[in-house]
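go over this chain:
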Amino acid sequence: MIKKIKAWIKLLETPEIGNAKAIRLTGILGEPINFIGSSADKLQDIDFISEKAKRNLASNIFPKDWNRIVILLEKHNIKFISILDDNYPSLLRSIYDPPPFLFYRGNLQKDDFRRTLAIVGTRKASNYGKLMTRKIGEKLCVAGFTIVSGLAFGIDTIAHLSALDCGGRTLAILGTGCEQIYPPGNRELADRIIENGALISEFIPGRKSERWNFPTRNRIISGISLGSLIIEGTKKSGALLTAKFALDQNRDIFALPGDIDKPEAEGPNYLIKLGAKIVTCTNDILEEYDLILENAEKPFPKLTSNEEKIYQILLQNKPELEFDSLMIKTGYSVGELSTVLLSLELKNVVKKMPGNKIVPLY
């Protein structure tokens, strides 16, 4: 695993190669460990990177601060997944600028990404905002949702606690290396998240807190989630930036209405005017996913490998996908696909709609 991580980091540190080119390159050549530090012949036919970049990739030069990175990985039990791995979040893979890899502390379960909802808001939360965050967050957890937020003070903190205090799962997306806790005052909360979810970061271990890191990480908060609930915040807040990313990523946007005279209600009220769904109770969110709270504790059914494959494709092409398009994406015959879809319907995981369209129910 250490060699795999080393190759990915070197790939991203190579001049001219950002996220998009790294993903494109690995889509052609596979894992970076297969072509980094070896003969440049493997890169000979790649026409979208320069000869200088090819020489850099073929060299045996270590990534910057590599020894320190290894120490941090081992000391903090930091784990790693790349976009080539099966357990990389499928929703995140489908966004415009997905991170090529993620570091995390804690444990990630497959069910964590079946029902994910981001809850974000201002650091200077009102009592009303805190109360509604906890009330909605707890009921979402009962419904089987994993709560996603950013570990900041205020609404983010309450969102994570709403999941932890009722035995649910929560993911914190960080703007630093995941061995660092920012703000430091949330160290105890971070420890609890590691036990019942994960701290996740696209930043290499050792990366310090930088102001521009946080807007970047907000695209992951929204991208890893089916929808984002904006509790409180001004029109220029990070919460509103998360909503913008959610809109660009074709995710659902929910907003808690607030007092028009309160600055912290400015952002959610603005989103509502733009078409965000008003949330006054948890069922306002659940009904968007064909769920009701009375049935919320029903566990997600166990899927076969073929069923899981189709379900993940449907999630990536939310809100719906035509049968013929699904057949092309899976490579299945009409009979094979019809059989698997019938099984998924019987398990109440998907639903057929007019026009021969299929929609996921979770």
About this structure: The CA atoms of residues 13 and 69 lie 14 Å apart. The mean pLDDT is 88. The two ends are 33 Å apart (CA to CA). The first helix runs from residue 2 to 13.
